Amino acid sequence: MLYNYLAIVFFIAFAIFMPVSLLITSRLIRSSKPGNKVKNAPYESAEEPIGEIKDTDIEYMPFFAIFLPFEIVAMILALWSVSVRSLSFTTNMSVIGLAIVAMIMSLIGYLYIREKHA
């Protein structure tokens, strides 16, 4: 029983140690010079930036809505198809519901992208 708690404490310590050590290492390695103003300026095909910045979350959301069904749900359905006979009715209906939601999400994403680029 004590072993389980020690494993959790070790995992938490490791989860804290890794990011902190990488941040400290990057701070020691990088240069502290401010750099060149021209080099650090935003680059848009050699033109001065005009207008406002697009919201990245909204811009990439339709691509996420299409990626999710085609990549992740496709793998879940592939694994489900192997063991469909041994699973309960509730589990099978849940997976079918997931497939339906994935199709709806991909359709919404496709329509949004088509409207945006038309």
Polypeptide structure, described:
74% of the residues lie in helices and 0% in strands. The chain has 118 residues and is mostly helical. The chain has one domain. Helix 3 packs antiparallel against helix 4.
Q: Could you provide a short overview of the structure?
A:
This protein has 118 residues and is mainly α. It is 74% helix and 0% strand.
Shape: flat
Q: Please compute the radius of gyration using only Cα atoms.
A: 24 Å
User: Strand tally, please?
Assistant: 0
Structural class by helix and strand composition: mainly alpha
Distance between the termini: 62 Å
Overall mean pLDDT: 80
The biggest beta sheet, please?
none
Low-pLDDT stretches: none
Helix content: over 70%
Q: How many structural domains can be distinguished in the coordinates?
A: 1
Order of helices and strands: HHHH
Strand content: under 5%
Q: How many DSSP helices?
A: 4
